[in-house]
């Protein structure tokens, strides 16, 4: 398992696949938090120029989520299978069809 804070990781060997998966999940979590943070700030700002900046940065964080997810799907081979099953279940139960 990784440390609570990445800079506390003292390693003599490379991270295992499991540890890389955890690191990528933490990175995704951080990006999702950043998206919420910037979008909430944007909603508080009346100046449209500044609001635009916050939304623009939030959108960049969304791209980062995609980058980390792509890497996570490469490292965690089972994740893609379970995500597909989840997408199929949502479509079956609600009619919502998601394609990436």
Automatic annotation (TrEMBL):
First-listed, main subcellular location of the protein, grouped into a coarse class: other
Cellular component terms per the entry's GO annotation: encapsulin nanocompartment
Domain Rubrerythrin diiron-binding: 24-80
InterPro entries in alphabetical order: Encapsulin_nc (IPR051429), Ferritin-like_SF (IPR009078), Rr_diiron-bd_dom (IPR003251)
Claim: GTP-binding is one of the keywords in the record: no
Keyword field contains Lipoprotein: no
Location relative to the cell: Encapsulin nanocompartment
Molecular function terms from GO: metal ion binding; oxidoreductase activity
Keyword annotations: Encapsulin nanocompartment
Highest taxon listed in the record's lineage: Archaea
Xref: Pfam families: Rubrerythrin
PANTHER family named in the record: PEPTIDASE U56 FAMILY, TYPE 1 ENCAPSULIN SHELL PROTEIN
Name the UniProt record assigns to this protein: Rubrerythrin family protein
């Amino acid at each position: 398992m990784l440390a609570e804070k990445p800079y506390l990781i003292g390693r003599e060997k490379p991270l295992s696949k499991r540890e890389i998966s955890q690191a990528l999940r933490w990175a995704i979590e951080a990006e999702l938090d950043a998206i919420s943070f910037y979008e909430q700030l944007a909603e508080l700002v009346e100046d449209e120029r500044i609001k635009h900046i916050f939304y623009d940065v939030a959108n960049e964080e969304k791209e980062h989520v995609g980058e980390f997810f792509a890497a996570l799907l490469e490292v965690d081979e089972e994740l893609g299978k379970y995500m597909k099953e989840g997408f199929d279940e949502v479509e079956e139960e609600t009619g919502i069809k998601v394609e990436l």
